[in-house]
Amino acid sequence: MKLGDLNLPTKILGCLIxxxxxxxxxxxxxxxxxxxxxxxxxxxxxxxxxEIGVLANALNHVSKNLRSMFADISSGTQTLTASSTExxxxxxxxxxxxxxxxxxxxxxxxxxxxx
Length: 115
Known about the structure:
It contains two helices and no strands. By secondary structure, it is an all-alpha fold. The chain is rod-shaped. The relative contact order is 0.06.
């Protein structure tokens, strides 16, 4: 049987089935490409309950989880930066206090050896 032998309703049905598969798959490919390039702002909208819908939901969860992980990393980095700054200030204060203690200790030793 050749494609030309099929009647018009069968051809139309075949085209609709093909479009119903290829369009969501094409959307999924575009979404995956954007995701692989670091674009985590998109969401894949495929309203199907079949395997393509399951795949679309899984890709959306991947994107959502990556956004969440990067937000956590960013927050942790900000906390680490703030802590580092605080430690630097404390270190500078300790150094200043050590110099003052050394100077006072040296002055006390000079006083003890003067007669």
